[in-house]
Amino acid sequence: MEDVELGAESTGWTRENLEKLLASLKDKIPENENKHTYIQGLKAVDWDKVAFPPFSAEECQEKWNSMMGMMRRYRSLPELLDEAEAVFSHRASLVDIHPEHPKPPTPPKMRYVWKKMSKYRKKHPDVTIGQIVKILSKKYETLPDEKKVGGLL
């Protein structure tokens, strides 16, 4: 991967520095953090222990946050670190986790809920959105399979 792609020209972050950051971060996360979400795990990180010369704790944290902008965060922190090592050590991997990567299609149940939401809300203005989603989800489950499959909603 070229250093320019990660903003290394102006900040001094080279591929070796990125690998060192990832290794240091991976080494310094608490043992029990693989059970928590990314956000909870990140709160437990002591960035002063992760930092290495010539970068401060704040610079390391800022670089990690910029790297995370290229990845999805619905996993635990250790899982994300494994992915980050793979992504930032192989240039071709960046294409797979690019922020402009197309999103997966909306599940049929959610399409059904969204389609019926405004009509149901007009008929029942006192019902909360959460309740409407539950009601419409249950209604979707009672539909025959022919209507669920193929988008005949």
Automatic annotation (TrEMBL):
<dbReference type="InterPro" id="IPR051762">
    <property type="entry name" value="UBF1"/>
</dbReference>
<dbReference type="InterPro" id="IPR009071">
    <property type="entry name" value="HMG_box_dom"/>
</dbReference>
<dbReference type="InterPro" id="IPR036910">
    <property type="entry name" value="HMG_box_dom_sf"/>
</dbReference>
<dbReference type="GO" id="GO:0003677">
    <property type="term" value="F:DNA binding"/>
</dbReference>
<protein>
    <recommendedName>
        <fullName>HMG box domain-containing protein</fullName>
    </recommendedName>
</protein>
<feature type="domain" description="HMG box">
    <location>
        <begin position="102"/>
        <end position="148"/>
    </location>
</feature>
<dbReference type="GO" id="GO:0005634">
    <property type="term" value="C:nucleus"/>
</dbReference>
<dbReference type="Pfam" id="PF00505">
    <property type="entry name" value="HMG_box"/>
</dbReference>
<keyword id="KW-0539">Nucleus</keyword>
<keyword id="KW-0238">DNA-binding</keyword>
